[in-house]
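Reading a protein record of the kind used here takes only a little practice. An example makes this concrete, so a full record is given next.
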Amino acid sequence: MTTIHDLPKEDLFTSGHTACPGCGAAILARNMMKVLGKNTVIYNPACCLLVFGGTYPHLSWKVPYHHVAFENTAVCAAGIKRGLKSIGKGDALVVGMAGDGGTADIGMQALSGAAERNEDILYIMYDNEAYMNTGIQRSGSTPYGAWTTTTPAGKVIKGKELFKKDMPQIMMAHGVPYVATASIAYPNDLLTKLEKAKKIRGFRYLQIYATCPTGWRAAPEKTVEIAKKAVETGMWTIYEYENGKMKINIKPKLDENKNLSVPIKEYLMMQGRFRHITDEQISLLQNWVNEKWKRDLAIEKALQ
């Protein structure tokens, strides 16, 4: 297992960028690069990470870095990898790293195609659950009930009316070698999965929970606490799927009926984006989370 104490001191994603205080994506990028190392190429589409870490003429990445268009992450990463192979540098790790909007929505077509072809790339979705860079609009990854600028909380609409898209399960359905979820709040699990994904050949997909204090209307110093509470309440499940087998890595407390012991209200009330949410909505979301968790357990059992 890779731990924080095992990481090199050198930062390949440097300080001095312009991320918001408490940004989960910045925390992820810094620690991620300590695992992936110098023989890495990064591709970024339009996203917060591009704006605060890669806006010309300033760059926080100390490895080759590319940016083209919003919807092209997976196909551009695949093209870079094939190009490197053609000149004898196929050992380089090519990483496509995008937000949830550029993955679950705008980039879905390129992502699915790359997965189908089993392109030899590592695709990382940092999940901050909205289009934060362009004004906090809802994405397919935004949870039910959340306020965004396109799902406002008013008398008629009370936040997003649809549930979060399950991207890891969609990627598992492609039959790729490796799919995993992780969280910035559980660094040892995250780093171990990055180390594993680095060594696997073929298409690998990681979806990482990355708190956004600005878009979630939360205190920056609560970034890790919120991320932990998401796992404790079942709002975020940490698992991995490798060569057809699935394992849940961190399990929250369950009652005798396999329902989650920590109510999701504890998670919701830590964030201003849920300040408006009604008891009826909380009950509906709690039931959805309980059923999602039971489904995850059933899939794990079926794929052991």
Remarks:
- The mean pLDDT is 95.
